Amino acid sequence: MREWLPPGHLVWLIADIVEALDTSAFHGRRKRRATADSHAGRRGYDPDMMLVLLFYAYCVGERSSRMIERRCHTDVAFRVACAQHAPDHTVIARFRKDQETHFTSLFTQVLQLCAAAGMVKVGTIAVDGTKIEANASIDANKTEARLREMASEIVADAAAVDEQEDLDDPDDQTPPRLQSRATRQAAIAEALASIEKDRRERPSSATKMTIRRVERAEAKERRLTEESTAIYTAQQQVLAQGRRPAGRRAVHPDRNVNVLKARQNLINARAALEHRNASEPVRKRNLTDPQSRLMKTRFGFRQAYNAQLAVSEDHLILAAYVTDRGIDIGEYIPTVAAVEQTLSELADAGHDRVIGTVLADAGYFSRENLAAAGPTRLIAP
């Protein structure tokens, strides 16, 4: 096969890189295979070969497992990458899924090889985000109220079906129609749980201010009640001994003017929080992909994810992750932290790198991002 492609072809470079990596973690889960084109019980495909195939496919922009399988039969470079084994698309997809957690270590190892070759220049790094469309329809988005309504309808409908089918066939307690209904109910439950988590962890700025108001009111009411109770109790103990207490006569905390005022302020603060929660923007979730969000892109609104990237001067990816936040403003600090973690791992391997300046567009412009600890930054206003 060395004669099939020129020595400088990309596939040979990728094969050499994989050979230099520590891929022992991938070999630990090597399974027997049984596909349409292989015999059950035969040893699974070599993980190193699968890595070469996937890396080469991704480098040339091929993501589909089915297309990768097809090109293993028709494309010379793909045939070289897979050593003419042409794995089934199900094998490719399963390998990618089963070994997902091990790919992170390869990311760092590749950067170490690049650093050893004099690359990974971080005098200036760039941070940016891009929307990646999810495999879900916008029409599958439902409001929280609609999700709860659908959940109630499913429960009521299931109960009615159960009752009727029990009468028709007492021995059949698991009607087939309920299986799909149960699956749908699970999707609704997951979407509602996601909304509840989002409400707790990501309140609006106005809601955050109201929450802090409630917390301050609670702390003040608790402090005044404790102080008033302590003074009143001490005076009652002195009176019980037949002596006259010093100072002004204390009243019970339930009649103390300052305590009553603090309790009323707490009631008002909690009422304001209830009103704020009721006026919060309507939260939606997608039943097909609850982790995706409706995001604004240059082509209009799309069901998508927000992918964040940080790259070096020589165009090497230093950090990459996906978030469900529709805007970039809250992703500057996490992205820079991810880059610093990557550089820390490089330093442990003997390749010290220090970030000079971070470049980011106006999507990251905020006082918090400008004032945050870390390297020098230029963020477009």
From TrEMBL:
Disordered: annotated span: 159-182
The Transposase InsH N-terminal domain, residue ranges: 3-97
The UniProt regions of compositional bias labelled Acidic residues, in chain numbering, are 160-172
Q: Which PANTHER family match?
A: TRANSPOSASE, TRANSPOSASE DDE DOMAIN-CONTAINING PROTEIN
Q: What is this protein called?
A: Transposase
Q: Which source organism?
A: Williamsia limnetica
